[in-house]
Amino acid sequence: MTNIIKITDFNAPELDVYARLTENQLVNRDCPEKGMFIAESPKVVQRALEAGCVPVSMLVEDKHIEGEAASIIAQCGDIPVFTAAFSVLTELTGFCLTRGMLCAMQRPKKRGVDEILEGASRAAVLDRVMNPTNVGAIFRSAAALGMDCVLLTPGCSDPLYRRCIRVSMGTVFQIPWAYFPLPLENGGLDLLHEYGFKCAAMALEEKSVNVNNPALMSEERLAVILGTEGDGLSERAVEGCDYTVKIPMSYGVDSLNVAAASAVAFWQLGNHKQEEEICF
């Protein structure tokens, strides 16, 4: 039975998850089994539910209770559904809700790198990419453009931060992902090589090959590695890779934002390109 609760007290502890807890507090590293994340918008919440994520409560603009949010609310049993007008929810959360809906959910169990790489032939690897917007955009491109999985080093932004989830349009729940236990240059590259992956570092070097290099594109298992905003990949990480790869550019432009670069690389090197070539 639906449990609709009109918001009358901003200080109610049940609203802490939406109004007062930081992203790091939601993760709850001291007690991971109690960790939560916030999914925003009906489409994103639906994708999280389809991936098996467990809802805890919802915050919904009152006009959406019987509108866009209705089918999702119906899937979630009797969890609390807190509701108010858009202006009240904006004041409570400090930002404008996308499509008038937030859902607090239990964090899924972490997956291991071994599990993620098993059976994969194209991996997107993020090394210390810290901006949640960039991480979310890279996930969306990876899911759309032929990557089998995403791997992240410990310095990356959490894919389950609210903004990252929203920018990814919920694809963080669709494409498998995991964290390396160690920095890329201290074990991550070795693990990729153990699984038969050739590693392609996206970096501007004299030895860089173009992203459409035939040998690169024909690799059976390939990991496309993208570095942190600004500094890019470390020298050690680049040296440990099998290829150094660049995207040809015009007008003297020397680089792209990491999210934009990922889309170009995934389009050229993803599994869908191999499928196209087989079809033709």
Characterization of the model:
With about 280 residues, this protein is of the alpha/beta class. It has 13 helices and 12 strands. The protein has helices spanning about 15-20, 25, 40-50, 70-75, 85-95, 115, 130-145, 160-165, 190-195, 215, 235-240, 260-270, 270-280, and strands at about 5, 35-40, 55-60, 80-85, 100-105, 120-125, 150, 175-180, 200, 210, 220-225, 245. The strands form 2 sheets. It has a 7-stranded parallel beta sheet with strand order 8-7-6-11-9-12-10. A 5-stranded mixed beta sheet has the order 1-4-3-5-2. Helix 7 (about 130-145) runs parallel beside helix 12. The termini are far apart.
Describe the structure in brief.
This protein has 280 residues and is an alpha/beta fold. The chain is 33% helix and 20% strand.
Explain the layout of strands and helices.
Blueprint (H helix, E strand, L loop, with lengths): L2 E4 L9 H4 L3 H5 L8 E5 L1 H9 L4 E7 L8 H6 L4 E5 L1 H8 L7 E6 L6 H5 L4 E5 L5 H13 L4 E4 L9 H6 L9 E3 L8 H7 L3 E5 L6 E2 L3 H4 L4 E5 L8 H5 L3 E4 L11 H12 L1 H9 L1
Parallel strand pairs: 1-4, 3-4, 6-7, 6-11, 7-8, 9-11, 9-12, 10-12
Antiparallel strand pairs: 2-5, 3-5
Helix pairs in contact: 7-12
Question: Characteristics of this structure?
Answer:
7-stranded parallel sheet; disordered C terminus; 5-stranded mixed sheet; single chain; alpha/beta; elongated; 13 helices; 280 residues; 20% strand
